Amino acid sequence: MFSEETSTSLQLESKTARKSGLKSAVSSATNSAAENVKECRKFRLFARDRRSNLRFLVDSGADVSIFPATSQNKKKAEYQLYAANGTEISPYGIKMLNLDLGLCRDFQFSFIIADVTKEEHKCKTTILTPFGLYEFNVMSFGLKNAPATFQRFIHEVLRGLDFVFPYLDDILIASKSNQEHEIHLNLVLERLNTFGLRINISKSVFTVEEIEFLAYLITPQGSRPLPDKVQAIINYKRPENIQNLRTFLGILNFYRRYLKDAAKNQALLHEYLKGSKTKDKRKIQWTDEAEKQFEKCKNDLANATLLSFPNSELPLSLFTDASDTAIGAVLQQYENSTWQPIAFYSKKLNDTQQNYSTYDRELLGIYLSVKHFKRYLEGRAFTIYTDHKPLIFAFHQKLDKAAARQARQLNYISQFSTDIKYIKGENNIVADTLSRLTEVSSIDCDQIADAQTQDKN
Hints:
By secondary structure, this protein is an alpha+beta fold.
């Protein structure tokens, strides 16, 4: 859980490492911004050991903990360590440290002693040219860990600007007015200039009401799939083999969060994929029902629901439901006197889950929905709505009376919310629809959308 800038974990930042890390950061900026790049380091989270006074750089996404090798501890280990890009890192054994981080007790960490000197990795970027061999001094395209490294850097550049949403070299600035947008734009440009970064004016768009961003259409009201992408899927020819069908479903599911009943409508199409292999060229024997499902999937995307932007100041709720064969959920926020959808979720149950009792299926629906939407729900107060009344007493019973699986699921749900309320099935129309896999032809998507708009409960 601790790391330096690589994909390793808990890296001691010695004077040499600090100079090396600073040199790496400065290489992506101009000489005029070299001094300002030092500000980048103050945004990183460090933990200091009170005994040794050593600082450790924290990275919660790392898998192992690394301690830098020195000339005294370079005894080759029998195992091998690999970086995120697949290159070998020489390990030199294990080192145990007891750290006093100022908490209620000491923590013991196991470190892998490894050689993570950055300068020697430059040789891995060597390219052959007519003029000889050259090494990159800055980040180049094509390296496996280049996107993650650049994303981390651009986050450090724009850290603290809550109106900016960067993804690699795409930067979205959201403002409420033209005056505010001008202020925001100046702040971003100043920050980019500080770090020696430049923008391509010909590829930039300024002061617009809606914009295409990462294959989505972003509007003041919310987001929806791009019209040209939707049109391409609508014009998609019926797949003739398994590989083409898998491609179609992959394209369609890129916008799955906008589809109210994805699991239901795609169930029959996924049946063709059972037992298939990679690049399977077997022909598909289309039935009339399968063709209707294929066309319905395309039409549902054409009528995709406009999803609202999450607002931490608005009340949040999670509506869930489970049928005999699937579970469904919709995450909503109370906006403009009505519940507005943020995202949809549905999942087909496997054979074992379909044999669960009604209580267990409904509980599983809540558990999987909370797990799916955890990025939205962490740190938020929200209410879970279900049409299965016994579940509202789930947290009033002793866990030792619950089955092991129930206890695990309730324990996970309780980390986010224990507020479960009952809602009649007739008022839980969206989640109920998402969980239904039978009687497909009886579902009217327009009626569902109208009911969702009018629902104020």
